[in-house]
Structures are given as C-alpha cells and as structure tokens.
Amino acid sequence: MADTAPAGAMEALAKEIHGEYCRNYPGMPYAVPWERLSENIRESNRAQACQIPAYLALVGCGCGADDAALPAVEAFTPAEIDAMARQAHQVWEDGKVADGWVYGPVRDDARKIHPLLHVAWDDLVEAERDKDRDIARNIIPLLRAAGLQVYRY
C-alpha cells in the first residue's frame, strides 16, 4: 500500500512540528509563532515533515488515511525510536550544512556556527539525543492531528 496524505498535510505537519518545538523548548531562538519565522526556518520545518515517510520506512511502517485497512500503530519500540532519531539527527545536520553552517565550539546563529555539527550520534550527550528521539516519538501524534495513521507493512 502506498503512503498517501491529503493535499496540504505536509504544511499542516510542518506547523505542528514547529508548535511542538515551541511547547518543548520555550525561550529558544526559534520558539516564536509560525508567522514570525523566517522563510528558511519554515522551510526547515516543511523538510522535516516531508522526512516522516522516510523515517517510517526505516522501521517498516508507512502512513495513510485514518480509515486505512491496516491496523494503526499505537507506539514505536525503543529500537525503532532510536533508528528514526539517528536519521533525524543526520537530516538536521545535512540541512544545516546545506544552509552554510559550520562546526564551532560555541553556537552563533548570525555566523552559522553550531557545536553539534559533525558530531556522531554516539558522541552526543543524552539530552541532545532526546531531542532527536522526541521527533520520532511525536510522529504518531502529529500524523493523527493531520487525520493520518501509522501502519506496519
């Protein structure tokens, strides 16, 4: 069964992803209303939404309308969460590098310097890994909010 999403679902998912970020990380530089985000940060959220089917495919899952014939997945295993989180970290890093960011020991948004670039998953502190795990943990609720479900192939 092919993954399907209604028109506009990715934009809605991008906004949901940003809303979740704002709830989880108040006070961070990008924890502002969607309308106040720069277009490149909105695009980053859209790109993250578009990655969801790839994350799901890593763990033998897909997504579709909430009335799909296959039973909905209610939760991912810890191993599935880690597999998707590792990929989410790589996608984040690839996006930063493509946008001109470089490694540096102190974050500087104006100069596009970030201390987590080119840091292997196994070398990240647990709090940073948990940020990526949150992306995986939130996939099911985000898709549900958009009227979609996760199913196993």
Description:
The protein is built from 5 helices and 4 strands, in the order ααβαββααβ. By secondary structure, the chain is mainly alpha-helical. It has one domain (9-152): Globin-like, CATH 1.10.490. It has a two-stranded antiparallel sheet. Strands 2-3 form a two-stranded parallel sheet.
Q: What is the count of β-strands?
A: 4
Shape: globular
Overall number of domains: 1
Give the termini distance in whole angstroms. 8 Å
Strand content bin: 5-15%
Order of strands, main sheet, comes to 1-4
Q: Percent helix among the residues?
A: 40-55%
Q: What's this model, at a glance?
A:
With 153 residues, the chain is mainly alpha-helical.
Please name the defining characteristics of this protein:
153 residues; mainly alpha; Globin-like; two-stranded antiparallel ribbon; two-stranded parallel sheet; 5 helices; 50% helix; globular
SSE map:
Elements lengths: L8 H16 L14 H20 L2 E5 L12 H21 L3 E2 L9 E2 L11 H12 L1 H7 L2 E5 L1
Parallel strand pairs: 2-3
Antiparallel strand pairs: 1-4
Helix pairs in contact: 1-2, 2-3, 3-4
